[in-house]
């Protein structure tokens, strides 16, 4: 059993890391949308969003990712038998995917800081849901552990992904209708 203080710190930094990952992509979306506005809104919003992204990324998100890894590693080093559990191996695979996502966000961050816009706001909204899917997967995996019914889990995972994509489409349709009325 992991030291409860180390476990608590691990959970705290997971929460702050996810908060940073969720919000940074929202800031990317706003930055892309600001780039489409006329001057002076484009410059003013662009500068402010770059500043907000920089602070969020380097003051909250990166430190949280590092501390999550540190405390998670500490728990595994303290109890290496956890690595033999199948749910832990799967969880660590999702964690690896989350770090890949984090590095992809870092690449996007650097591009947008240099005004290099390669994606639409809709593409970024879809990209933003990757962290949500990973979070849902890891939480269910950790809570259910070996009791996980793989068929129900797979169906639930696909259903959540479909609902997220449907939500993005509905949001885009509503937003386009509102902009059409202006």
UniProtKB/TrEMBL annotation:
It is found in: Cell membrane. Binds 1 heme b (iron(II)-protoporphyrin IX) group per subunit. Its main location: membrane. One of its GO terms (molecular function) is protoporphyrinogen oxidase activity. InterPro entries: HemJ-like. It comes from the Bacteria. Pfam families: UPF0093. It is a multi-pass membrane protein. GO terms for biological process: protoporphyrinogen IX biosynthetic process. Its EC number is 1.3.99.-. Keywords: Cell membrane, Heme, Iron, Membrane, Metal-binding, Oxidoreductase, Transmembrane, Transmembrane helix. Belongs to the HemJ family. HAMAP family: HemJ. This is Protoporphyrinogen IX oxidase.
